[in-house]
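Researcher: Here's my situation. A collaborator sent me these components and asked whether they could plausibly form a single complex. I don't have experimental data yet, so a predicted model of the whole assembly would be a useful starting point for our discussion.
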Amino acid sequence: MSQVNRLELGGRINRHKTLNFTFNNKTYQGFEGDTLASALLANGVDVVGRSFKYSRPRGIITADAQEPNAIFQIGSNDASTIPNPRATQTELYQNLVCNATNGWPNVDFDLMETVGKVGGAAMPPGFYYKTFMFPQSMWMSYEKIIRKGAGLGSSPLQPDPDTYDKMHHHCDVMVVGAGPAGLSAALAAAQAGSRVIIADEQNEMGGSLLCSTQLLDGMSASAWVANTLSELEQNENVTLLPRSTVFGYFDHNFLGINERRSDHIGETDSNGTRQRLHKVRAKQVILATGAHERPLVFGNNDVPGCMLASAISTYINRYAVVPGNTLSLMTTNDNAYKAAIAWHDAGKQVTVIADTRPIPEAGTEGDLVKQAIELGIKVLFGHAIINVKGSKRVKSVEVAPISSNGEKVEGEVVSYTCDTVASSGGWSPVLHLSSHTGSKPVWRDDIQGFVPGKTEQAQLICGGVNGVYSLTQVLNEGMQCGAKASQAATGEPAQEPLADQEPSAALELSAELEPSAGKKLSAEPAPKLKLVEPSSAPVIKEPVEAPAMALFHIPHVKPTSRAPKQFVDYQNDVTAAGIELANREGFESIEHVKRYTALGFGTDQGKLGNINGMAITAKSLGKTIPETGTTIFRPMYTPVTFGALSGSDVKHLFDPARFTAMHSWHLANGAEFEDVGQWKRPWYFPKPGETMQQALQRECLATRNSVGILDASTLGKIDIQGKDAREFLNRIYTNPWSQLAVGKCRYGVMCKEDGMVFDDGVTSCINDNRFLMTTTTGGAPAVLSWLELWHQTEWPELEVYFSTVTDHWSTMTISGPNSRKVLEKLTDADVSNEAFPYMGWIATEVAGVKARIFRISFTGELSFEINVQANHGLHTWEAVMAAGEEFDITPYGTETMHILRAEKGFIIVGQDTDGSVTPQDLDMNWVVGKKKEFNYLGKRSWTREDNQRSDRKQFVGLKPKDKNFVLPEGAQLVFEPNQSIPMTMVGHVTSSYYSACLGHSFALAVVKGGLDRMGQSVFVPLADGTTVEAEICSSVFYDAKGDRQNV
Amino acid sequence: MLHIYCPYCEEYREEEEFHPHGQAHIVRPLAPESLTDEEWSQYLFFRKNPRGLHHEMWVHAAGCRKFFNMTRHTVTYKILETYKMGQQPSITAEDTQ
């Protein structure tokens, strides 16, 4: 294949390195240095996609981030594929594979086009709302077809094979954009001694200078760029980040940057990190993001071959690609003449330039206009291209004279044959980043564009984003900004007075350097950095330019509603007629217009069309653009892959898993695990061939009849010390702690100030100034924070300290009638009931290592909780297993623990409670201190009227009538089974199991007024439409007197 | 992403090290039992939601674990000061009016 549109000479491409690539299964060649878009244009590919709604053929329009049409599915397989990158910003690499994301079955023959043609007039804005909304149940089916027809790309189906990472930076000055403004700002800041980061989204830094034909100090623009970059690279305080998009600007000068490190090399060649997320906290931010050219809105302006004037200049000058043979240009300004001149200089024909401005007085034409006329190009002032003919490529344009205000056609329409149409309606500053931090854009009539408004950030703007377009001024402003930012960031004044130009208003520092803290930081002297003689701005011969015309929407001989389609937002097929219709239907706020028409909703986020859309709205409502207002841009500036955002925080690094010291034993013994918080806890230990239910029954019966062992290491443990520790416990727990003797343990419940149960656990008195608190596994961090909160904020006078010691101890609970016999084999201590009674603890040795044994029970059986240093956990566990072998000691997991405790009616906070349950609701009045001196947390709230209601949901047991039926946990309860829906719900099942010991199923539940309804029935309507009956009973099902744990 | 000066660590740290804890300077009544339900509910449930300066409590959760106070503008997110528990703000909404 030949590159039909490639020039013989020129461009920043390496003609010695040919790259093959595949687009829609056809292979083409481009050169190193090409973007995918420039390579496609070089090969004369016109149609690159189909539009969303009308399915019209679409071509490449831009050469930058604005591109709405050339968005592809890029990647050769299901793992590497990426949906919707812009071809204009994708560097070509060897064997790149891409396909159009829309167009079905393919872009050249598109089924939906038929629909579009037939339904064209019948698809006004709001079409989807109006047509597909009813019946609502069908929406899902409609959506599938619409999506397939329109195509928004598809996600990778396989795991991403590449690696991603993140870096954090602090710098004095962060420069966004490495065009002329950014480069000169970075240079000035670096020369003044600042630590500088400069990021640019393109593969090469230089921005507009890379395709400029202007001379700087007599040297080419690209030579100036090379010199500047070389100086920056040599400065060790400067970090250059090419291929790095600053996608978000967040509060307090925090920026997110997506650096593409190996995407340009190719899929298989990439080693190391594919993309890197830089998180930058900058003292000063300089936005030098430039400006985007605006297209004009005219009839059939979407036919392939219609492009931005600046894009044509870029393709010719930077990539040596002339994307056609004959050009027509429509412009409101001088600048766009560059495209026609470049086209002419490339040896191709310029048919006509339609300049919308009235005929200038002789001699007042701008230099570029004069140049075009001198080259013999036909220039028609006061004319516009009102319509384009052609389907898959421009065939001709219709040119007509227009009124001096640009609102109507005044005269005869003349047709010109051409294959390419360039248009320029002026420039829009790229203010997206400043908008991210909540700054409202401000309209400037003199430049016909929005610029960044007032901001809270330590932010400076220079160059195109500030509405400054002449290269001399841009470079000057960049230098001033750099020096000023450096001074603000480092406190060092610039070395010598800056260029004599008046600083523009936008240079005013808009925010303080840092928010002032209560105590100011003592200004630490920063290490003195080497200062360099500041450069002066180069001398440039600037073309004289005549004023531009404010024009957005080109009139047609017919009214807009009957004129050929004039596209505003290409990706969503929003037309000028559509916006006017939305206005007529009452959508006047620009945010409403946007939502109704989908203006700016595509992957381009309205970069290309939004200002034109606002201008059309303003005109149709008879308002000015600032009165109409603008929509707010939000992050991301351009889409960022999930890979980059997650970095290396994937798989086991996404959320760390915590393991107990005995984890390897559990694995070796076939445990199934469940996640409790971050912990991996054994759930149950099935023997070969056992079902879960069989394993649970075996574990339960073994524990009740002989001895079981549970790894309880994950329970939260907090070491509480200090002379006021006891008083602190009195205030935090609902029950009294004044009398708890050394060596004793007590169960306690914590409530929040609203009186609701928040956590529970056993706390033991180690000595008078020291207690060991246990918490629920999941609640440990919250409890520690809770203790700290009250100590630090309300009771700082109490001398008490908290340390988490959860990980320091391994805890194994042996439970069951034979547990004492097992323990006796492992310790010399007297563990008889007399010497070591229930709710006590002792310090001793178990299996030769130091241990604390707690006689507490969560199963209702005789139990010993053995705590050893975590390093000795596995050793001790294995010793206990060996000692227990003769009693068939049975390891059990959390599920058996849950069943055994539920049989005893012991609550699990967070399962049986939900933050709306008081101790009284739980029938746990015994845990509530009546005589405590301090009015402890939660107490006052129990007497609140609402907490005194007799119909509060109260904690009870349930016995299903069908003894083998296990009620679903979470099932709602009703008293009236025959009531029609919506039924009156009176509570729900909180825990439900089959009990091997009891021989029947049982449940715990909360039921309105349940404590007074013992023996009554409740009904459980199930999802399958059936209803089961259960009897309300005591929540204690087993050993109500508690004899078994106290032997 | 706020940049927060911890008055105990005496340096700026990233927001992800901190947790917000709601309105600051809510004092627990000394004698809760003497309050009516309505008075108690004011302490329990009612919080300010100003457009403008807000004094709020934060905790340096992944740092020194200390609670402290912050005066923050709820529209601009500008932090005017941070100060230790037990101290009073030096800037209030009245000052800035």
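Model: Some features of this prediction you could bring to your collaborator: Residues 667-713+810-901 of chain A form a domain with the Gyrase A; domain 2 fold (CATH 3.30.1360.120). The mean pLDDT of chain A is 92.
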